[in-house]
Each structure stands twice: as C-alpha cells, then as structure tokens.
Amino acid sequence: MLDVPHELVEHVSWLIYARRRELNSTWRTLCCFHQALLALAHLRKNETFAQLAAGFEISEATAWRYVDETIDVLASWAPGLREAQAGLGEGDFVIVDGTLIPIDRVATDEPY
Prior knowledge:
This is Transposase Helix-turn-helix domain-containing protein. InterPro entries: Transposase_HTH_dom. About 55% of the residues lie in helices and about 5% in strands. It is mostly helical. The chain has two domains: about 5-75; about 80-110, no CATH class. A two-stranded antiparallel ribbon has the order 1-2. Strand 1 and strand 2 (about 100) form a beta hairpin. The longest helix is centred in the first third of the chain and has 18 residues, at about 5-25. The chain is globular.
C-alpha cells in the first residue's frame, strides 16, 4: 500500500497527462494515473524496477522509462532556486536542492 494522498497521485497524473498532450503521445501501456502510482511507489517506497514491473505487469525498461519521465515532469513543474527564494517566509531556509525547511530557531549575529 502506498501511503500518499490520493490528491497527490491525481495531481501528478494531470501533470503527466499534460506532458503527453504536449508530446502528442497517442498510446501508452499504463494510463496517467497508474504511471503516477508507479513513479510515486518508486520514490516513496524505493521499490525496484523489477518489483514495479511485476506489480504493474510491464517490462523493467518500461518501468524505468515511466519513472524517468515522471521525474522530468515533476522537475519541470518545481520552482527554481530564485522562485523558491522569492517565496521564503520568516524563518525559512533553502537547502541546495531547493527544499524549504521551516525552523523555530533564530540565528544571532554574534560570533561564537
């Protein structure tokens, strides 16, 4: 069982759908929703491509391509570093990969 919200799977599947429309891709083995499930299972549970392929009844190469395509879709949708910095709130910090982490500590300007 995948412990992610249904809304997340739907959102990712709509992003995949938009990418497929952009590429004019007419046919795929898995629908957008199942591709989103496959990729999220890999990212969340660290499922191997062999396990994903067996679970979704596709080849390992197809599982790899679906995960790779979904990661590209998510990466293109994610904000860049400048956008992330512009959206910073009080007490937020940016990690190199663009992740925002709220904290409850405030640094002092005094040296140790």
